[in-house]
Amino acid sequence: MTSLYLRSLCLALAATLLATASSRADDLKKIAASLDGYRYEFPCKDPMPENPKPGADGISARATSDPATNDKFTDVRKFGGEPGKRYKVTIRVRGVVEPMMYKDGQQDGDYFYIGGAPNNATYNIYKLTVSSPASHFFFNRQDKVGHKIFTIDYTQTIEIEGGATLTFHGDGQNGRMITNYAKLVVPDVAPAPQPYNGQFIQLNVTDVVEVK
């Protein structure tokens, strides 16, 4: 009887600890709600043709006659958490993009680039800036540009201080883009199973851990 009682007690304690840890993890993920689900979008102005030409480019729906706003956008959000505390935030990066080159920073993986600056004047830029610790990142790094389109799906972990300002910036630079001529689809990301008419990147937070 004693052995069964102790076993039941241990199982109950383990279940409680597991539930507590799960609740803690959920609470930490809520800190990153302003980042979770954010989408950079560069829609095409014209409808997608039935049989697009390989390598075709098109006019961006964000194109304007004002150089200050032409084919670019900036969104600013506040990260949660406590000021003075840092959090390791793991993000899943998925989308359909054209290539872009960057310089004077650090390549991490095939597509992620830390710091630095754009190294071409015509292809699309996808950038995230964190106010503290001061840092910025690019998501579509390639060794060379060209008339191609490809899907991305990878994870990266970055550090963000509680209460930091997040600045999401997209810049098509010239009012045009490489269209989604291959009708690429990212599974489980809208508008899947249909292809997106243009380019996009969606960020989803998969984990948040407080830096001790």
Q: What is the number of strand segments? A: 14
CA distance, first residue to last residue: 43 Å
Query: What's the helix-strand series?
Result: HEEEEEEEEEEEEEE
Described by the principal axes of the CA atoms, the overall outline is globular
Q: Could you tell me the strand content as a percent range?
A: 35-45%
Instruction: Estimate nothing, just give the exact number of structural domains.
Output: 1
Q: How many individual helices?
A: 1
Strand order of the main beta sheet, please?
A: 3-12-9-10-7-6
Report the average pLDDT across residues.
92
Poorly predicted runs of 5 or more residues: 15-23
- Major sheet: size, sense and barrel closure? 6 strands, antiparallel
Structural class: mainly beta
Helical content class:
10-25%
Brief rundown of the structure:
Helices cover 14% and strands 39% of the residues. It has 212 residues and is mainly beta.
Q: Would you mind describing this structure in some detail?
A:
It is built from one helix and 14 strands, in the order αββββββββββββββ. The longest helix has 30 residues, at 2-31. It has one domain. Strand 9 and strand 10 (135-138) form a beta hairpin. The model is unreliable at 15-23 (pLDDT under 50). It has a six-stranded antiparallel beta sheet, with no helix packed on it. The protein has a four-stranded antiparallel beta sheet with strand order 1-14-4-11. The chain is mainly beta. It has one helix spanning 2-31; strands at residues 39-43, 57-59, 72-78, 86-97, 102-103, 106-108, 112-114, 117-118, 125-130, 135-138, 150-161, 165-171, 176-178, 198-210.
